[in-house]
Amino acid sequence: MKLKDPELKKGSFLSITLLILSGELIFLLPYVLARVFRPTFLEVFNLSNLQLGGLFSVYGTVAILSYLYGGVISDKFQPKILIAISLFFTAFGGLVLSTYPSYLILQILWGYWGFTTVFLFWGAMIKATRVWGGSKNQGEAFGLLDGGRGLVAASMGTLGVLIFSVFLTNDIELASLVERKNAFRYVILFLSFIVFVTGILVIVLMETSQEGVINKNASLIPNIKSVLKIPSVWLIMFIIISAYVGYKVTDIYSLYASDVMDFDNLEAANIGSLQLYLRPLVCLLIALFANKKSYIHLIIIGFIIMLIGALIFSLGIVQVDMNYVFFFSLIVVATGTYAIRALYFSLMQEGHVPLVLTGTAVGVISVVGYTPDIFASPVIGYLLDTYPGILGHQYVFSMLVVFSIIGLWTSLKFSKLVSSFK
What we know:
- This protein has a single domain (about 15-205, about 220-420), classed as Up-down Bundle (Growth Hormone, Chain: A), CATH 1.20.1250.
- It is built from 20 helices and no strands.
- About 75% of the residues lie in helices and about 0% in strands.
């Protein structure tokens, strides 16, 4: 069955703005909070790195189970409805987190978030973005989405650090655990409120999809079979899994600053927040120039850059009192990672994935592409706990070297496939 895509025009600025806001705010509670405040997060919840990795693994397991059917649902219903419902349910989880529950409840909560942030949300967001970009602006659409999401994450991270510091009654080094927990609770509640309000804005203001992209008769098995027959889908899976390992490694930048560079908790949180600003900068540059070049060629360059940065860290070159080397190496790894993230879903257009099957394709690709949500965080946590100090971090970045090579090889294969279409 050959499906012909409708000719679509680019959507409104308001719609892409709402997609950007919802696309990042929904992940603030399960992901960004622990990334920016990792040392503080471990302390106030009394967790080891391995236990935190276990939470992300629970999240990833539920998410993987949610991708497939969630993708098909996004091919049947208007994205704005699915996105808003997901935001509301995710915000409610923040209220539970603010009570500092037991580790068992935290595991259940992260599993709950694995469902609320994926089942109705993920395929709907990617499909709405592809529709917004129209037939000729996919690089711009996904570059703006991920760049804008990065700006939102960085802004929320900075605001979170500010709220945390304002509600600390003493200097960070003098504050008791109770004082830190009380201050951190305000951060959690603020983020939960923002997520809920965004859901209301999506319902009221986001435009509906253009005609020809919703199939109310879409069914799971036939759609999946159609998607699996598309050669580019398999290559996109492995491009994403390789890039996503790089993204998971960004979780430890603040911890590297604390463990290796001897920064205090607040300084480390600032590193976690400031490195997030690289994401919008890189992705917005991608949005400006991507439509003038082949997306896959930019992704190949991204993997080369990520590989170079990972090698610098894995060799143990970045040590205490080498702040400039640390910042340079962090920028190199993050630049490569964010450049790839900005473009990997735009490959569906180059790879001839039919628009009407976008949700299903996203679900199928994500089942493999986002498996680092299951294995990466526990592996990273194990390495950091078992090999304290710089050695554990070297092992983590060595893992990234391997996946950078896999991603580079797969991208070259995709480039050859695209060339065969011409």
